[in-house]
Design goal:
With 36 residues, the protein is mainly α. The protein has one domain (2-34). The chain has two helices and no strands.
Length: 36
């Protein structure tokens, strides 16, 4: 999980991602964690 999170944060650092996209990624990650 932290690997995916790291990728997201790397992308966030390189170019500012719109808050909607961040929320979308967070939601995907949340769903992914629950379906483990």
């Amino acid at each position: 999980m932290d690997h995916k999170l790291n990728l997201n944060f790397t992308g966030f650092g390189q170019n500012l991602v719109p808050i909607e996209k961040l929320l979308y990624l967070w939601e995907l990650n949340y769903i992914y964690e629950r379906t483990k």
